[in-house]
Amino acid sequence: MVQNLDAFIPELWSRRIQYLTRNALVATQICSFEEQPDLKYGDRIHRPYPNDLVVNDYVKYTDTTQQDLIGTDEYLDIDQSKEISFAIDEVDWIQMKYDLENSYVERAAYRLANDIDGKVLSEVSNAVVSMDAGDIGGTAGQAISLSTSNCLNAVMTAGAKLTANGCEMDKTWALVVSPKMASVIAQTVAQDWFSLADLALKNGYAGNFAWYKVYSSNNVPHSRTISFSSVVATDEITVAGVKFTFVASIGSTAGNVLKGANDAAALANLAAAINGASGAGTTYVEVSASDRAKLKNVRANLDASTGVLTTSGDVLVSTPDTTITVGAEEATALLCRPGAIDLVMQQNIDVRKNPLPKQKADYYIISCLYGVKTFQEGKERMVKIKIAA
């Protein structure tokens, strides 16, 4: 029997397009924008700071000791110029079912905002005060294995360290954590004395805990150390779904990385491949555009000298080979006085739509221009907390 009624069965399209996942943004909640009004033009603003003074004993009828006054200059550069571009032809406009303009413009604006968020939260590395497991009875230098039994202790200890460093409590401090840490806080709150409802997510704000405003973000910096032990050709490592394969000769397959003469050379070449640095075609073969987008979206960066891979948020890094070791992942939570990090949006996220010459298409450029800086006074008002991811 050859009956086939497929020609009479329609294929239907949904009334809407898919809404892709979005992170809650927190940069605007914790940054200072005080320099923004003064940067209508120009690309740098200076904010010097004075050296400290010391109290001496005074002895009658003897000369005092003059202390030198030394100023140190610091500045914020407007050096982050970002864009996303695409085109839509009039023929597609006429024939398409969905409003792609609004969908893609909105998505592009979100991607730019998310990139700003990742840049801002990476500033936690500048914190003068740091905290790890050794501060709450564990092993010094190790990340804190957070649980409901030690969560309050960890957060309060971080606050005590920041207070000891002289940070004012004139504002409610901000605690920026990963979703996993937010979950532990929520469980701690639920089993102790607060209502879980206080932790309902709203624009990144997750409620109050231990006198601090808690913000949950997928952009909290994560890190892990990658090390090699006599890596050989055909060994592989996958970062954020992008596979890299070590080879003896470069070839042309996307993701190939030249093994080089030793493990140090292999690490340097892998760093260039992950970071999208110079060397494409010689020390590595560039990955596909979609794979490069995956790495950019999580701000993946491998330090060739230390082997530390940093990303915005939790990212899967794996290898099937024993010659490559991927260390335990760590998240860096941030506790700070709001305004510790300065953000200047010289050009807010802007949409430019222009007709393409000799075409019936419009070209869209969604862009922004901004600068981020943690001045010395901000570094002293933030603490980085090492958490086992």
Q: What's the layout of helices and strands?
A:
Blueprint: H1 27-30, E1 31-32, E2 44-46, E3 49-50, E4 71-72, E5 75-77, E6 80-89, H2 90-95, H3 100-121, E7 129-131, H4 151-164, E8 174-177, H5 179-191, E9 205-209, E10 212-216, E11 221-228, E12 236-239, E13 242-247, E14 256-258, H6 263-275, H7 289-297, E15 301-302, E16 308-312, E17 317-318, E18 324-326, E19 330-336, E20 341-355, E21 361-373, H8 376-379, E22 382-388
Parallel strand pairs: 1-20, 7-22, 8-10, 13-14
Antiparallel strand pairs: 2-5, 3-4, 6-21, 8-19, 9-10, 11-16, 11-18, 11-19, 12-13, 12-17, 15-16, 19-22, 20-21
Overview of this protein structure:
Strands 7, 8, 9, 10, 11, 15, 16, 18, 19 and 22 form a 10-stranded mixed beta sheet that branches. Helix content is 22%, strand content 29%. The protein has 8 helices and 22 strands. Strand 9 and strand 10 (212-216) form a beta hairpin. The protein has a domain at 230-322. It is globular and about 110 Å long. With 389 residues, it is α+β, with helices and mostly antiparallel strands. The N and C termini lie far apart (59 Å).
Order of helices and strands: HEEEEEEHHEHEHEEEEEEHHEEEEEEEHE
Shape: globular
Number of strands: 22
How large is the radius of gyration? Answer: 26 Å
**Biggest β-sheet description:** 10 strands, mixed
Percent range for β-strand residues: 25-35%
Overall SS class: alpha+beta
